[in-house]
Specification:
Length: about 850
């Protein structure tokens, strides 16, 4: 080789080395930059149909039940995955992202774990419709078949409890399920008669969840954890990577909707009765997406995508985002768009309305294509009693047995701060001196066999003190019983009955606490320093586990989130009634998991008594399953309409529904912003006479009609164009209610009803106008044959401006005894 040739080769080698080094340095700098950025989960929605709608768009028929194993479906699913990989490889830097989930059935997209700078690149790429940061997800946290008259009503029509819900699959996106619970057992003597040909689920196994867990009652079980694993270090002893429910919430929800009939409820060796789900013969499909340590929307949406693919009939969401989306309309978050496509695929979605009441505009179920369920009480009460030495009896709360002698033998009564160790070394903070959180703070000789008064004070309000710690202290020191009274400086507190295996009672009212303390001071001797020297006051705690069935019900629960519905974070109001309906959600018995990862007081229990819209939603899901069984061809919106128009706005005393207010024990007349259309009435919902239904195209028109909406936003979110020639308003969506958040002058609203009965029927219409309005209905008399439709025109005019919403209804009374009620919620702004 010549010298010049060697020099050229050396120069070339040096250039290549330099170039390679430059590339390496550049990649390294990108990597370092990404390390400096916090990674988050992002949800990405792409153009193009998911598998469920791809074949329908090409003329292959009904998209609701596409066979996912069909060759064309498999091929399209594979092409979706390949397109995801290609997009990311061509857009983002290697090593800067992780794909957590791919959504390919009812929507086209994926969940990504990456940095803001990488996401910024993705947002501007062709084919990317939406990018949204994950907001996280959380849970919205027996006797009700009797309350709702199911046994003599719809259950009887469907062959009794042994057939109620047969052939319907309810999906639960939640914290999993306890497969060993008797509420989910399979009885070989009561075999299922339906073959579920429309359902194609599978059973994933893992810790505490062998293959036998899918037993015929539980027909499918899956778990989704990629999002959770990306943002948190999971606790292997609690965050089981299997469908098993370590928390209890998912089991509780599933048992309310579809738990077996007549399961004995036994807690702390006490028999509370028998529990039954709303649709005890419905099958259960489990989609675990929430873990004790964390929950992400990425996992939730992946679970929804799988549930739609599997073919569930009804999807129950007692979980979801706790707040509205930050950077888009409430209806256009990827979560809500996911629910829209589930509805398009023929799945009825039932959502918990949220637990942020009684403040207004706190619902987290925003969209008209789902049923948002608020919570109410039943007439069942668990009341405990406290007997004082002077004969006074006070009511309280506590699911525990009585103190000595079945609550008839009076014991020494002592205030916690009068029983402290002299010269003790413990901190002089409320949790030690008055809240009974630490046994070491007390003189054991004083408190033994005595009734000790603990105080609901600072630690309970900031979350550091617990009732469980009081029970521990009571057991450790041998109290006869404990009483939890409020600190007058903080006012009354809210007490819910919790089963505990030690005599005790919660007295939540300051007025009652003052009675107890006055008696105590009258009977207690003190020295000149104020220290107690002799305890002469006496008390006994009565039985708290026996239920009574009196009082007003249903009443909208204090915690239940309220309307009006909102469009965006600026709290602009939507012309949609939310919540849709109320159902029992206060003090509901349901299945539980003994591990009880987040509720130490319920550890070891197989049942729990819980309150929340989480408990209300599965009531409606189970009722929807009963309606679906009886009317298998009804669409989701038809079922939703039937539930709405047949609900009741009166309680068991014949009065208008009431609602709990901000102050404990305060009630006010409820409105549709609290209770939606009213309290669910399953027996009438099964035969409503008329329904008002909407489909996917109607929802797109609704979105395009939102005020000041940019049509491109709708197209970007849904892939559907807005037809500008359609002059529509949001309130013209064919819902079983009419909501106008700002009525100016006069408007004409359209509704279309369909006769889903078997007979021709004549209806007479009447109107109860909201205050400040005049309402005319056309026609007021019509006759309609089976499967025929009738257009209604509702003219609303302002007669007086109002500062708040006012309410009324349209009542259509049929000649065959059907009564259809359409709720009117209007805010008259100007004449």
């Amino acid at each position: 080789m010549s010298k010049s040739m060697a020099q050229k080769r050396a120069t070339f080698t040096a250039l290549v080395t330099s170039f390679s080094l430059t590339i390496f340095i550049s990649m390294f700098l990108v990597y370092i930059a990404c390390l400096e950025e916090d990674r988050s989960i992002y949800l990405v929605l792409l153009e193009g149909d998911g598998v469920a709608f791809h074949e329908a768009s090409h003329g292959h028929g009904d998209s609701a039940r596409i066979d996912p194993n069909r060759g064309a479906s498999v091929a399209h699913g594979r092409s979706i995955l390949e397109s995801h990989d290609l997009l990311l490889q061509n857009t983002l830097d290697i090593g800067t992202y992780t794909i957590l989930h791919t959504f390919k059935h009812h929507i086209n997209g994926f969940a990504l774990y990456t940095t803001p700078s990488q996401v910024a690149r993705l947002r501007v790429m062709a084919g990317v419709k939406m990018v949204e940061k994950d907001r996280g997800a959380k849970m919205m946290t027996t006797y009700t078949p009797e309350v709702l008259s199911l046994r003599k009503g719809i259950w009887a029509q469907e062959g009794g409890e042994r057939n109620a819900g047969e052939g319907v699959v309810i999906g639960f996106v939640d914290s999993g399920i306890n497969p060993l619970h008797p509420s989910f057992a399979y009885d070989p003597m009561q075999t299922f008669t339906s073959n579920l040909s429309h359902f194609v689920g599978a059973c994933e196994t893992g810790p505490h969840f062998p293959l036998s867990s899918c037993n015929g009652k539980i027909v499918s079980a899956r778990y989704f954890s990629a999002g959770a694993e990306a943002v948190a270090t999971l606790n292997a002893s609690l965050d089981f990577l299997s469908p098993f429910d370590a928390d209890g919430h998912g089991s509780h929800v599933a048992s309310i909707a579809a738990g077996n009939a007549g399961v004995p409820v036994v807690v702390n060796d006490y028999y509370y009765g028998r529990a039954s789900g709303m649709a005890p013969r419905a099958r259960i499909a489990v989609y675990k997406a929430i873990y004790p340590s964390v929950g992400t929307l990425a996992d939730v949406i992946a679970a929804i995508d799988q549930a739609v693919l599997d073919g569930v009939d009804i999807l129950t969401l007692s979980i979801g985002p706790d707040d509205p989306p930050q950077d888009t309309l409430t209806f256009l978050s990827i979560f809500d768009i996911s629910l829209l496509y589930a509805q398009k695929a023929g799945v009825l979605v039932v959502q918990a309305a949220g637990n942020k009441g009684p403040a207004p505009s706190t619902v987290v179920s925003y969209s008209p294509w789902t049923i948002g369920v608020a919570a109410c009480t039943t007439d069942r009460r668990y009341s405990a009693s406290l007997l004082l030495g002077n004969g006074t009896i006070l009511d309280g709360v506590g699911l525990s047995g009585a103190s000595f002698g079945n609550g008839t033998i009076l014991q020494k009564l002592i205030l916690a701060k009068d029983a402290l160790k002299i010269n003790g070394t413990f901190p002089r903070t409320p949790e030690y001196i008055e809240e009974c959180q630490h046994p070491e703070a007390f003189d054991p000789n004083i408190v033994f066999a005595s009734v000790i008064m603990c105080t609901f004070s600072e630690g309970f309000y900031n979350g550091t003190s617990t009732l469980g710690a009081i029970v521990h202290t009571s057991k450790a020191l041998g109290f006869a019983a404990y009483i939890l009274i409020p600190n007058p400086s903080y006012g009354d507190y809210i007490a819910e009955p919790i089963p505990f295996d030690f005599p005790g009672i919660m007295i939540p009212r300051v007025a009652d606490a003052k009675v107890i303390l006055q008696n105590y001071e009258d009977e207690t001797k003190r020295d000149e320093k104020g220290s107690a020297t002799e305890f002469c006051a006496r008390a006994a705690v009565g039985e708290g586990r026996v239920a009574s069935f009196t009082g007003r019900s249903p009443v909208v629960s204090r915690f239940s989130s309220r309307g009006p519905d909102i469009i965006d974070m600026k709290r602009n109001l939507a012309d949609i009634l939310k919540p849709d309906i109320i159902a029992p959600g206060h003090q509901i018995w349901g299945a539980w998991t003994p591990i009880s990862a987040l509720q130490p007081m319920l550890t070891g229990h197989n049942f729990a008594l819980l309150s929340g819209t989480s408990m209300a939603a599965p009531h409606v899901a189970g009722i929807a399953a009963l309606i679906k069984q009886y009317n298998p061809l009804w669409t989701p919106s038809m079922i939703a309409s039937a539930i709405s128009t047949t609900s009741t706005k009166h309680d068991n005393l014949g009065d208008v529904l009431m609602a709990e207010g901000f102050q404990p024990n305060s009630l006010y007349p409820s409105t549709p912003l609290d209770h939606g259309a009213g309290a669910v009435n399953p027996n009438d919902a099964n035969d409503p006479g008329l329904v008002l239904s909407s489909g996917y195209t109607d929802y797109i028109t609704f979105l395009c009609s939102l005020p000041n909406i940019d049509p491109n936003i709708i197209t970007a979110a849904t892939g559907e164009p807005c037809n500008t020639h359609l002059f529509a308003y949001p309130y013209n969506l064919n819902l079983p209610s009419v909501t106008i958040s700002a009525l100016k002058g006069s408007v004409s609203v359209r509704r279309t009803v369909m006769n889903i009965g078997n007979n021709r029927e004549t209806y007479v219409g009447a109107v109860i106008p909201p205050n400040g309005t005049r309402v005319n209905l056309y026609p007021t008399l019509f006759t309609i044959s089976p499967q025929e439709t009738q257009d209604l025109e509702i003219q609303l005019s302002v007669t007086q401006s109002m500062e708040k919403f006012s309410f009324g209804e349209i009542v259509l009374t049929g000649s065959l005894n059907h009564i259809v009620r359409i709720t009117l919620s209007v805010k008259p702004v100007s004449i």
